[in-house]
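In response to the reviewer comment on reproducibility (Comment 2.3), we provide here a single inverse folding case reported in full, input and output, so that an independent group could reproduce the run without further information from us. The structure tokens appear first.
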């Protein structure tokens, strides 16, 4: 078994993705996580291109890396300028990283059109820049830009460019599919040719314009590449880079090739979601291996088989990459889905249980009305609990009034007046908000905090409204989905009505009830009182 080096360029190539911009502090946080995860190289940016990247290299020098080497990225010297006098090369040296990665042209078309120089001068630029950086005591990685397109156009010249890099002293020559249009069979064939031509190790840097970046990276490794460059979540320019969240488990679990330390693979999902959070980008739930839907099962036939053996519908155990198995509840659910959920929540129900059949039928009826429980686990659990003896609703609504006024400054003013029953007590209170739903949320919490102090740590993290039958205009049925968090956990709830306030109330009430139920179970597991008070629930 040989080792394939993982070279992460999330902080450089990944920032070229539309909609992504990291602060220097963001880049420091991600670099620390990448190092902890076990990647071999972290490309921090291009110090000659902007002050932020230069600041990053200055700050990262004071942070000890346990595994990864920090690399600065730049280009070969400019035509007719000595390497030691080139501003970009000087910036690379000033970054004071142990590794520098420089790119140069492999495609004769680019040499003439983009650089505006001769083929001979381009070879000298590659060789002299690498040789100069090596003389300064640095490890040099050479990125052969547009290598595969260059090889297809002029094989002899493309090979001469990487030969110049190897002779200049590059430790690794990385072949780049910069336009992302090559096919796996082409990648394998060309890498094999280059591998036989060079005496230095080869790497691969693939872009995803043809949806082939991961496949191309794997084929390159099969052909002899020993370094894979890519980004977390596949972030990158245009359609992105090779997604390391797929490359790493495919190499490790499917190909038997060592990459990061095996014991750290279980942190992959956590890393993927952390980078999404720092990038302020919604995490792709359908992403292989690390997406929340990667091991989610909806069809009843699938779940029936899954109960017998996970291998029937899962290619790996989700825990290997730090993910979890999920069974979804919808109109496609069968009794197998329900049985899985009963077992998950320790409810003693068998396949012939009247409660189970009743819940399944009710769910199908509700989904026909517009409810959707796939992302509303909280509402489903509350529904399920209500079917069994012993569940007491923590509160019930007696009356609700909402007032919205537009005053002389054209500012909307909302107030919710709510009357709740909690056990034997009736609470009557009011609260304002920046809109009717916000006022309702504030009034509900105000009424319940005396009885359930745990509500203080719950907050709405997302609120979505979907119109289900647009043709009915303002009288259309709407579905409200709410995401609630208490810090460590989050859960979804749902409400459906032709009245958006009623739908919002359904989702809000379920979100609080589920949060209290989960808190009670956690506290009981710790040997504490269910809700932290002497409440009647």
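Designed residues, in position order:
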């Amino acid at each position: 078994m040989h080792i394939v080096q993982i070279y992460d360029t999330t902080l450089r190539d990944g920032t070229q993705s539309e909609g992504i911009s990291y602060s220097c502090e963001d880049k420091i946080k991600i670099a620390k996580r990448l190092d902890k995860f076990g990647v071999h190289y972290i490309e921090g940016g291009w110090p000659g291109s902007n002050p932020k990247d230069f600041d990053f290299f200055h700050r990262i020098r004071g942070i000890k890396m346990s595994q990864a080497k920090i690399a600065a990225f730049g280009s070969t010297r400019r035509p007719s300028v000595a390497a030691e006098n080139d501003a970009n090369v000087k910036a690379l040296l000033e970054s004071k990283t142990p590794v520098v990665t420089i790119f140069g042209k492999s495609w004769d078309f680019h040499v003439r059109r983009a650089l505006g120089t001769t083929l001979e001068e381009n070879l000298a630029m590659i060789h002299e820049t690498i040789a100069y950086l090596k003389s300064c005591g640095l490890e040099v990685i050479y990125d052969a830009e547009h290598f595969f397109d260059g090889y297809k156009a002029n094989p002899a010249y493309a090979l001469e460019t990487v030969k110049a890099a190897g002779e200049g002293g590059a430790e690794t020559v990385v072949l780049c599919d910069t336009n992302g249009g090559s096919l796996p069979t082409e990648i394998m064939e060309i890498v094999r040719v280059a591998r036989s031509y060079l005496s230095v190790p080869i790497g691969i840097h693939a872009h995803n314009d043809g949806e082939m970046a991961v496949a191309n990276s794997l084929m390159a490794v099969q052909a002899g590449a020993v370094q894979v460059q890519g980004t977390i979540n596949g972030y990158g320019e245009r359609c992105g880079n090779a997604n390391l969240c797929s490359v790493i488990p495919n190499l490790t679990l499917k190909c038997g090739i060592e990459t990061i330390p095996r014991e750290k693979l279980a942190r992959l999902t956590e890393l993927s979601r952390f980078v999404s959070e720092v990038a302020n980008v919604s995490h792709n739930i359908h992403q292989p291996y690390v997406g929340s839907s990667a091991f989610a099962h909806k069809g009843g036939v699938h779940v029936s088989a899954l109960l017998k053996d996970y291998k029937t519908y899962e290619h790996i155990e989700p825990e290997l990459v730090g993910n979890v198995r999920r069974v979804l509840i919808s109109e496609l659910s069968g009794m197998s889905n329900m049985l899985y959920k009963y077992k998950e929540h320790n409810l003693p129900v068998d396949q012939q249980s009247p409660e189970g059949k009743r819940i399944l039928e009710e769910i199908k009826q509700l989904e026909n009305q517009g409810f959707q429980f796939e992302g509303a686990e909280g509402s489903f659990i509350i529904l399920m609990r209500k079917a069994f003896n012993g569940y007491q609703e923590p509160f019930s609504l007696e009356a609700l009034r909402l007032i919205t006024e537009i005053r002389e400054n054209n500012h909307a003013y909302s107030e919710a007046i709510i009357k709740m029953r909690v056990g034997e007590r009736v609470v009557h209170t009011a609260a304002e908000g920046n809109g009717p739903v916000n006022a309702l949320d504030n009034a509900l919490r105000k009424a319940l905090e005396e009885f359930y102090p745990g509500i203080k740590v719950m907050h709405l993290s997302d609120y979505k409204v979907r119109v289900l039958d647009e043709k009915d205009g303002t009288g259309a049925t709407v579905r409200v989905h709410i995401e609630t968090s208490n810090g460590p956990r989050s859960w979804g709830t749902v409400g459906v009505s032709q009245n958006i306030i009623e739908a919002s109330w359904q989702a809000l009430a379920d979100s609080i009830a589920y949060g209290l139920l989960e808190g009670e179970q956690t506290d009981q597991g710790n040997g504490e009182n269910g809700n932290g008070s002497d409440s009647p629930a």
